Amino acid sequence: MTTPHPSGEVGHGRYTYRLRVSSTASRSLLGEWDRTRWVWNQCVAESRAAHKAGQACGPARLDKMLTGWRGECAWLREGASVPQQQIIRDFTKARTKALKDIKGRLPLRQRVGMPRFKKKGLAKPTLNYTQRGFRLKDNRLHLAGGIELTVVWSRHLPTVPSSVRIYRDSLGHWYASFVVLAETQPLPATDRAIGIDWGVKETATTTSDNHNLLHAGHGSKAACELTRYQKMMARRKPKRGQAISKGYRTARRQAAKVHKKVARQRQDTARKWAKRVVSDFDQLAAEDFRPKFLTKSTMARKSADAAISSTKHELINMARKHGRTLYLVHPAHTTMDCGHCGARTKHALPLSERTYTCTACGAISPRDKNSAHVMLVRAGLNPAGADRVRPGGPPARQAV
Length: 400
Fold this sequence. Notes:
Blueprint: E1 10-20, H1 23-53, H2 59-72, H3 74-77, H4 81-103, E2 126-130, E3 134-137, E4 140-143, E5 147-152, E6 163-168, E7 174-183, E8 193-198, E9 202-206, E10 213-214, H5 218-221, H6 223-235, H7 246-280, E11 283-287, H8 300-306, H9 308-321, E12 325-329, E13 355-357, E14 364-366, H10 367-378, H11 383-386, E15 396-398
Parallel strand pairs: 8-11, 11-12
Antiparallel strand pairs: 1-5, 1-7, 2-6, 3-4, 4-5, 6-7, 8-9, 9-10, 12-15, 13-14
Helix pairs in contact: 1-4, 2-4, 6-7, 7-9
């Protein structure tokens, strides 16, 4: 259990801005991306060869290889060295996490997986620059290699950024995401606590009826329009070896617009709800739910539309920003325990059973509402019921 950030403590945050990119700058950025993608693919090939030979393949070895690659290839030397070095850092981080999962004997469905080759037509351009690879001058972003970009300053940067990530989305729009040191913005104390349980029918069920987050259904509302463009793409899909037609590119862009709109609607709904919860409560206990397994179930589409993962992410960020205490409670047996007396049912409740009835104390409540009360008890935010929790249960871990 980690210590929460006190009010006024400095932490890292990301500030993202839209970029106005000229045709010349766009060609330069795509050229840099081709070089960094080539470096990534070389790292994948070298790591696989080192694994077969039983040798180590760490960042120091890959850095030396990068020096040799740049010495041998003039095309690679034309690009800046900073994004190429940073792509090696990203590769080693991903490979280390994959090896850690293998060593920990995690199930295959929970493992990250070893880094794979980045294909030109599928991988989205992403470039990372540290402080020595960029500078801000006259409200413009200057990158290593003589690339100048116009930033749409929708808000001011609180401090000087330590790094920046340049990326392009599915619509072809370029963005700059700056990492800065931002102070916590404390809110007035309320001396109130809330328990949060994630679900599909309701994205978030809380101990407060006024703070439940209903399933907005942004994806289902846009399903007809999205299906239309996907059918257009299927009809115009080029055969193997043929060039992509203008009609296919148009349909693909329209489908990407629908996806982007839905993603922004989900993010906006999650941020507004998280801000309201954080403003009204000092302490929050939320289920540490990982909805990845739902993607292989019959509820895959509805769970994706509920956007549980992104909503949980926005709640964590909002609590950290405003100095609130957030506990992430282990989800094991949260639907089987009673939120009033702590008794546990003898069997797992099927999803069709939406009412929880305690055989010990006789309490009757909606299933998700009972789970929300369990979050409070396990986090120790409900002193009246904390001593009645089953001993030896999975502890809550503090996120902020």
